[in-house]
Specification:
Elements lengths: L1 E6 L5 E5 L4 H10 L7 E4 L5 H13 L2 E6 L2 E5 L7 E2 L1 H4 L7 H10 L1 E4 L13 H9 L3 E5 L2 E5 L7 E3 L5 H11 L5 E5 L5 H12 L3 E3 L5 E5 L8 E3 L4 H13 L3 E5 L7 H10 L2 E4 L3 E5 L9 E2 L11 H9 L4 E5 L10 H6 L3 E5 L2 E5 L8 E3 L3 H13 L3 E5 L2 H4 L5 H7 L3 E6 H10 L1
Helix pairs in contact: 1-2, 1-4, 1-7, 4-6, 5-6, 8-10, 8-12, 10-12
Bound molecules: uridine-diphosphate-2(N-acetylglucosaminyl) butyric acid.
The site of uridine-diphosphate-2(N-acetylglucosaminyl) butyric acid has 25 residues, from α1, α5, α6 and α12.
């Protein structure tokens, strides 16, 4: 079992380059199935979620050719299957995007229910409601979600909750449906806009992405495209918080500062200094963090995927902060791990009351999910002594080259496995 070993107390300094956005990549890669020609996708992050999606594409019959470490060429034409099995879908939330993409391609999809991080109940009722409105019949059969249609016809769909996944899935299914589809109460995240831009670059007709109303006029065919994915908002935000938490000075390169506004606003309230440039932001901190209340909300609100990381910063702030989770039912499972390091946090339903302490102490902890894992890494960076973070396969799903990037910034972090510990004991 691999783990991170961090000797805390180092100040992060220098610059770090952000990779492509995970949550855009995992939507754009399945979207290639809607095309009649090969596509080249660039600026892909080197993370296990991307590997899993590429594996799923290959299992469907598509040809995937690696061009370099962040670009692939995908030829969807040989993909004859419409089935994504349990083995392939497991651990991946975004496997659900194969439902919309395969339905849009073949009028038929059979996909195992999605996995991904455990935040309590993760329903897909709004995805199904959208597919049914377009004319599909959706059943759960032998543990698989099975969707089929004679034809897909444009419809008006109002989402009962703002859902990134349902918005993306309906866009995928509706791109080649007959007539006009309108999604109301749509999610507005940067990756929704990126998917719309990619589909439009293949000849789709999608308007309004990035607002609450998306209009999709169905087209008969999509052609190939060469497309570069936007930078990852959450990877950028994670390094911004790490810079502030360690009292460092870091320039985060290859970002879209507009996507970082809510994170910049909260870091500024906490006392960090943030300078914005065209494609980079500099974050530095020369004082003790100040208390701050944070509530997560759909975009453009403060992202839920930054909630655990900012909580670590607030755990060593002056005063008491309240962090409220406004998207997921249960996203405080990491708090117990943080208390092992000396944090003072009380969770009451959807809120965490964080009383700032003078410092954290190194301890063995685990990554209970992807962003919780990132939070543990930040906690390890600021703690006194050594922190080991286990169950890091969660972190691999969303952070590329973590050791290399943090080491370049001056952190003392190593990736090891238990086997290495045994070797040390043997040589002792
Ligand atoms: N919801 C429903 N019904 C549905 C769909 C969602 O009730 O049919 C509810 C959920 O239970 C939740 C809320 O709506 O309370 C929002 O869920 P959403 O569908 O927006 O989330 P998702 O599409 O499953 C994506 C990201 C998550 C991120 C959320 C919210 C991907 C692959 N995942 O999940 O990212 O937390 O949007 O922004 O895009 C991460 O990257 O660490 C991560 C978990």
């Amino acid at each position: 079992m691999q783990k991170y070993v961090i000797n805390g107390g180092k100040t992060l300094k220098g610059s770090v380059r952000i990779g492509g956005a995970k949550n855009a990549a995992v939507a754009i890669l399945p979207a290639v199935l809607l095309s009649n020609e090969p596509c080249i996708i660039e600026n892909l992050p080197q993370i296990s979620d991307v590997t899993s999606i590429l594996h799923a594409l290959t299992s469907l019959g598509a040809t995937v050719k690696t061009i370099n470490k962040s670009s692939v060429q995908i030829d969807p034409r040989p993909a004859k299957s419409y089935v994504v099995s349990k083995d392939i879908a497991k651990g991946m939330r975004a496997s659900s995007y194969f439902l919309g993409a395969l339905l849009g391609r073949n009028n038929r999809a059979r996909v195992a229910p999605p996995g991904g991080c455990d935040f309590g109940v993760r329903p897909i009722d709004q995805h199904i409601k959208g597919f049914e409105a377009l004319g599909a019949k959706v059943i759960i059969d032998n543990g698989m979600v099975d969707a089929r249609a004679i034809s897909l016809d444009g419809a008006s769909i109002y989402l009962d909750v703002v859902s990134v996944g349902a918005t993306i899935n309906i866009m995928l299914a509706a791109t080649k449906a007959k007539g006009l589809t309108i999604i109301e109460n749509a999610a507005r995240e940067p990756h929704i806009v990126d998917l719309a831009n990619f589909l439009n670059s293949m000849g789709a007709n999608i308007m309004g992405a990035g607002t609450g109303v998306i209009k999709i006029r169905g087209v008969d065919e999509l052609h190939g495209s060469n497309y570069s994915i936007i930078p990852d908002q959450i990877e950028a935000g994670t390094y911004m918080v790490a810079a502030a938490a360690t009292g460092g000075d870091v320039t985060i390169e290859n970002v879209t500062p507009k996507h970082l506004e809510s994170i910049i606003a909260k870091l500024t309230e906490i006392g960090a200094k943030v300078e914005e440039f065209d494609e980079s932001v500099r974050v530095y901190m020369d004082s003790k963090p100040k208390k701050c209340n944070v509530k997560t909300m759909p975009h453009p609100g403060f992202p839920t995927d930054m909630q655990p990381q900012i909580a670590v910063l607030l755990s060593v702030a002056e005063g008491t902060s309240i962090v409220t989770e406004g998207v997921w039912d249960s996203r405080f499972r990491y708090v117990e791990q943080l208390t092992f390091m000396g944090a003072d946090i009380q969770v009451d339903g959807k809120s965490a009351v964080i009383t700032g302490v003078n410092g954290l102490k190194g301890a063995p902890v685990k990554a209970v999910d992807l962003r919780a894992g990132a939070a543990m890494i930040i906690a390890g960076l600021i703690a006194d002594g050594t922190t080991t973070v286990e169950e890091i396969d969660h972190i691999d799903r969303g952070y590329e080259c973590l050791t290399e990037k943090l080491t370049t910034l001056g952190a003392d972090i190593k990736r090891t496995d238990d086997f290495d510990d045994l070797k040390v004991l043997k040589n002792a």
